[in-house]
């Protein structure tokens, strides 16, 4: 496989053809913020937090789904990008009902961490306060759609790693949400193996274990490590 050479933030990088800008930046030790990206599953460019500037292209590109090409000159941390990322985080808070003080993931939430990193102390956008439901029909887990950011990490982990295909995205526009079993209550979906991978993959407190209270969300790093390597090592067991 051929090698492509490019510059990211002025740093010369050589990486194999087919790699993404996000992978190239990671190899070079350059951090690009992400929310929908999860090592071990496919990328879809949903959150747009990894937008970068590429010389000669008059639009911002998502680093997670943009392949490297020869001679690229990429900027990842310009004032424009910082402002866009902060705006995206503000919109995510405004379009949902993210009340950190009563969330199981308070203190262990990627959205919360990104808000702190971006310097967000309020949202310039009016809060929508949508009416969203909570599904606790499953024996072990629950999903609070008020906290969901539609990153679809749960969908991809369930499809590509567990192979159960329980999760999907239903409806359109502001009504879009992740659904289980063609929009059936989670507890009635026989395909669910109760593996908990969706819980570990969720970046917020949207999918949680029953019995957890405020700030008690604790990620199982061993399961996340499994997600990273499962496809390559053919480890399809629970």
From TrEMBL:
Residue stretches making up the 2Fe-2S ferredoxin-type domain: 1-80
Coiled coil: none
Record bears the keyword 4Fe-4S: yes
Lineage top rank: taxon: Bacteria
Any one Pfam family match given in the protein's UniProt record, by short name: NADH-G_4Fe-4S_3
Domain 4Fe-4S ferredoxin-type: 139-170, 183-212
Domain 4Fe-4S His(Cys)3-ligated-type, first and last residues per copy: 80-119
Keywords: 4Fe-4S, Iron, Iron-sulfur, Metal-binding
Alphabetical list of Gene3D superfamilies matching this protein: 3.10.20.740, 3.30.70.20
Name of the molecule in the record: Bidirectional hydrogenase complex protein HoxU
Organism: Floridaenema evergladense BLCC-F167
């Amino acid at each position: 496989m051929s090698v492509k050479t490019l510059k990211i933030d002025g740093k010369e990088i050589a990486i194999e053809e087919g790699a993404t800008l996000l992978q190239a930046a990671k190899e070079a030790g350059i951090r690009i913020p992400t929310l929908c990206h999860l090592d071990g599953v496919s990328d879809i460019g949903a959150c747009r937090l990894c937008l970068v500037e590429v010389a000669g292209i008059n639009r911002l590109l998502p680093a997670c789904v943009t392949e490297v090409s020869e001679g690229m000159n990429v900027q990842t941390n310009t004032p424009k990008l910082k402002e866009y990322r902060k705006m995206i985080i503000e919109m995510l808070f405004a379009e949902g009902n993210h009340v950190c003080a009563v969330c199981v993931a308070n203190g262990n939430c990627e959205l919360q961490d990104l808000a702190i990193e971006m310097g967000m102390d309020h949202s310039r956008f009016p809060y929508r306060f949508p009416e969203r439901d909570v599904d606790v029909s499953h024996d072990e887990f629950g999903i609070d759609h008020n906290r969901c950011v539609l990153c679809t990490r749960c969908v991809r982990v369930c499809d590509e790693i567990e192979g159960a295909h329980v999760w999907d995205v239903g409806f359109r526009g502001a009504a879009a949400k992740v659904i289980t079993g063609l929009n059936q209550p989670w507890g009635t979906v026989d395909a669910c193996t109760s593996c908990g991978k969706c819980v570990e993959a969720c970046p917020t407190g949207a999918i949680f274990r029953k019995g957890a209270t405020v700030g008690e969300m604790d990620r199982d790093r061993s399961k996340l490590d499994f997600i990273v390597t499962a496809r390559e090592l053919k480890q399809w067991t629970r």
